[in-house]
Amino acid sequence: MLRSICKLPHKIAGQMAVDILSRSMSGQAPQKMEDYFKGKKFIVTGSCAGMGEKITERLVDLGSFVYAVVEKEEGAAKPLPNTKQIFCDVSNWEDTYKKMYDIGPVHGLVNNAGVAVIESFFDVTEHGWDKTLNINARALVRISQAVAKNMIDAGIKGSIVNISSTISTRAIPDHTTYCASKGAVNQITRTMAIELGKYGIRTNNVNPTVVLTRMGKIAWSDPEKSGPIMRRIPLGRFAETDDIANAVIFMLSDYSTMVNGTALVVDGGFLAG
């Protein structure tokens, strides 16, 4: 058919190609993004509070089952319906892989677990450096190795979303280790996108500005600290957990099937100026 079209005059051939494409697409009502999540399984790390808690809630509301990764059982919140809590110290290299692999195949992973040790450059400690890099970057690699292996073995073309930060690219004072760890996340994401893409597994970042979680509200309550950042945000506010969950849901869904190895910045324009 295509060879026959190519023999026709250019204008006629072009119109015929458009008509054929239009007919092939007609009658295919686009699926609502929300419908994608019904009956799917996901893993969310750092799911007991803040952004992880909100992302878990949204996935459950959309009809998904969530494996909610929590550091320890002691003091953990009661699990939501359609979730299963997985207690795991993600800084433990071997135990983390085993627990994530034993979950079995899922359709998506959100690497949300993270810590921020606030130390000025000259006050950076070995403990602060190791803890931050181990949880924010190293654990992300180990978790993703297990999850991606299960996806590949099951033939699932899934999505992995890594939570990074705007200060992975624009540094702020007293966040040496945090900035370093999130810069690492950006590069890990790009490498994963290249290596896992051939299996149909997409890997992307969501990069928020300050997010007003319960802890975020406390940490950024001082106007002297928050003011310089707020003044750089054209929308004039910090992010809410729903803002981050919206971005993650998009990246997990089949509305973003051609998005791979990139960062969805959720910052109200902070990086634009």
TrEMBL record:
Homotetramer. Pfam families: adh_short_C2. GO terms for biological process: glucose metabolic process; xylulose metabolic process. PANTHER family: D-ERYTHRULOSE REDUCTASE (PTHR44252), D-ERYTHRULOSE REDUCTASE-RELATED (PTHR44252:SF3). Keywords: NADP, Oxidoreductase. PROSITE patterns: ADH_SHORT. This is L-xylulose reductase. Coiled coil: none annotated. GO terms for molecular function: carbonyl reductase (NADPH) activity; L-xylulose reductase (NADPH) activity. Belongs to the short-chain dehydrogenases/reductases (SDR) family. InterPro entries: L-xylulose/Carbonyl_redctase (IPR051737), NAD(P)-bd_dom_sf (IPR036291), Sc_DH/Rdtase_CS (IPR020904), SDR_fam (IPR002347). It comes from the Eukaryota.
